[in-house]
């Protein structure tokens, strides 16, 4: 079975300002290791998938940088969206490209900005999901929850299925009974105790023809727009057609637009050290901490403090004294200071800078 990974690299990552900017989004940052998240995402795929069968979807402002970052991919494997329209149009456009090469090709849609600590276990789970997809299911990978997390969506498990990664460990798959929105802390604690809920990783695996069928059923307007684009594939009219049609596609996530309406969803429960690295607060999960739970990098000092994230440049020291649960980030031209429990609100600083016309900092 041949797997075609498609890496979704179109996000802006405003929760990582001031490190992330329009020209340098989250997936281009080395948040969880020495290399950018995008390069790490592609680097963990072999030998399950080959570079010549791997695609990256990104915007025009990031295409050149993405190509430089992952030179192993053929130039034609970079699918450039004229504008951001969320993940449903992104998935549909990618499926057109794969279907043109292999109509029943198995696509693995992968976010570009996640961290995975155990790539071998990840590939095993992806292989199991691909086997379900080959048989006609839309498979996702669910993460066993380790805490009552309120920042993730959940999947409620339905009846059991069977799946096995070829030559690897056995996985017990399930139908997905329903998708669940991000819960409050009491509900999240109940999900954890129940044992029948998994974190939604945002990783989906399906055949190209199957996802296009599901888009046609759930989103007929998008289906018509994709058909116009499909007719131009491989012709000189493609770029002009894409630029004309794609901006009018409905801006909606694949979860809301298709997955929550489909009866084909199956899930492979797995554990492979997954983090969506959703905010600066998550860096404690993927970076080294001291004995008091502090993450301090660059010329950063934490004195008499606990559970802080302090990121400094090498150009000037940053000292945090006697504080707990704060985030301090010095990007050279801008500084962020916030409580750790407000890490999701960093985007509000980006919005305020936009209102003030400070484009040079965005």
TrEMBL record:
Keywords: Nucleotidyltransferase, Transferase. GO terms for molecular function: nucleotidyltransferase activity. It holds the Pfam family ManC_GMP_beta-helix. Residues 299-353 form the MannoseP isomerase/GMP-like beta-helix domain. Residues 5-290 form the Nucleotidyl transferase domain. The keyword Nucleotidyltransferase applies. This is Mannose-1-phosphate guanylyltransferase. It comes from Anaeromyxobacter oryzae. The lineage of its organism: Bacteria, Pseudomonadati, Myxococcota, Myxococcia, Myxococcales. The gene is manC.
């Amino acid at each position: 079975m041949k797997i075609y990974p498609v890496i979704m690299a179109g996000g802006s990552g405003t929760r990582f300002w001031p490190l992330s900017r329009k020209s340098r989004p989250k997936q281009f940052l080395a948040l969880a290791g020495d290399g950018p998240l995008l390069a790490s995402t592609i680097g963990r795929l072999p030998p399950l998938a080959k570079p010549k069968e791997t695609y990256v979807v990104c915007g025009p402002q990031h295409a050149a940088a993405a190509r430089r970052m992952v030179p192993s991919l053929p130039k034609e494997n970079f699918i450039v969206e004229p504008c951001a329209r969320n993940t449903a149009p992104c998935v549909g456009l990618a499926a057109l490209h794969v279907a043109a090469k292999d109509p029943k090709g198995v696509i693995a849609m992968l976010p570009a900005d996640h961290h995975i600590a155990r790539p071998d276990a990840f590939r095993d789970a992806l292989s199991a999901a691909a086997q379900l997809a080959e048989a006609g299911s839309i498979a996702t990978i669910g993460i066993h929850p380790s805490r009552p997390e309120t920042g993730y969506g959940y999947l409620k498990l339905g009846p059991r299925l069977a799946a096995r990664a070829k030559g690897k460990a056995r996985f017990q798959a399930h139908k997905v009974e329903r998708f669940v929105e991000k819960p409050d802390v009491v509900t999240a604690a109940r999900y954890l105790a129940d044992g029948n809920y998994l974190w939604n990783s945002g990783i989906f695996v399906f055949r190209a023809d199957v996802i296009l069928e599901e888009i046609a059923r759930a989103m007929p307007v998008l289906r018509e727009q994709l058909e116009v684009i499909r007719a131009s594939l491989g012709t000189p009219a493609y770029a002009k057609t894409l630029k004309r049609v794609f901006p009018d596609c409905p801006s909606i996530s694949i979860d809301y637009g298709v997955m929550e309406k489909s009866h084909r969803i199956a899930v492979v429960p797995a554990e492979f050290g997954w983090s969506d690295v959703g905010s600066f607060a998550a860096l404690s999960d993927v970076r080294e901490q001291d004995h008091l739970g502090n993450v301090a990098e660059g010329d950063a000092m934490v004195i008499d403090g606990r559970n802080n994230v302090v990121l400094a440049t090498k150009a000037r020291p940053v000292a945090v004294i006697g504080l707990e649960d704060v985030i301090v980030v010095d990007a050279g031209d801008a500084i962020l200071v916030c409580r750790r429990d407000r890490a999701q609100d960093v985007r509000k600083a980006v919005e305020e800078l936009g209102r003030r016309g400070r484009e040079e900092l965005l």
